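Interim report to the steering committee. The following record documents the input for Putative mRNA 3-end processing factor (339 residues).
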Amino acid sequence: MIPLLAFNDNGIYCEQANVYLDPWKPVKNAIITHGHADHSRWGHQNYMTHISNVPIIKHRLGDINVTGKEWNESFTINNVKFSLHPAGHIIGSSQIRVEYKGEVWVFTGDYKTEDDGVSVPYEVVKCNTFITECTFGLPAFKWTPQAEVMCNINNWWAENKADKKTSILFGYSLGKAQRLLKHLDANIGTIYTHGAIENMTNIIRPMVELPPTTLITRETKKEDLLGNIVLAPPSAHGSTWIRKMTPFVTGTASGWMAFRGARRRRAIDKGFVLSDHCDWFALLESIKATGAEKIICTHGYTEVFSRYLRELGYDARTEKTQYEGELTENEKVADSEII
């Protein structure tokens, strides 16, 4: 029997509807979970995604043919019923529910269960088969609550200000940057931004209330930055753009900062463990809540995680994809270096 969703060279395919979910090669019809580059790629003829993700992928992909859907809005293609549900990963991120002849599959894309105050919180969707990421699918990954991490970041900024140094904080231009911005204490000083982050934040501002920011331009003097904080993408680290800001202190917000040595290898002064993905415990809780009997593990520690699920009694297996989790701009390091 042909499965409702199958993995092939182009992506995750629903043959009955002739639709792909987050395909990595150009196809005719694509349903997109969110705006990160490994899940929303250029070249598809028709895009469908959540309405709040439309301006984001248009900004990233240019002139595309895209249709926006609301949360829980059902749409049927050749008798297959689809709907989008909040994934909590970044703003506009969706899980895709697929139903045909009483069988329900859910593709999560990327997701997290902690409410970040920016994206619509994760929603449990009951299903028979659950396709889950496991970017951080090792028991050593257990996240500290966001409020505590952001308190540490704001204290770090305040200490750097007292030392008359600029704080440079690295995070993805889409998702992580807006999450950090939402919870930075603007009473400490001015929040400056790299152009990539400023441009993406301006796309998102109509959807989320965020503190004011100041774009760094050629006219910005390093004296203007002293004591203030700069949000920049990881790709800016080590660039001439950064070197002109001395004296500064650097920090990175990423789940990979839970690895011993990751901060040192990337020549970062301070690491903050803050991820837009589930930790080990949230992954297990999410899977249990769906009621699914079959679990398909993609991108991340798939072998370890699926083996553990089988020990718990699930019908679990792995599938290869071209999704990268948080690896796009952050390195993955050896298991022996986990804290």
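The chain has nine helices and 19 strands. The committee is asked to note this result when reviewing the revised timeline.
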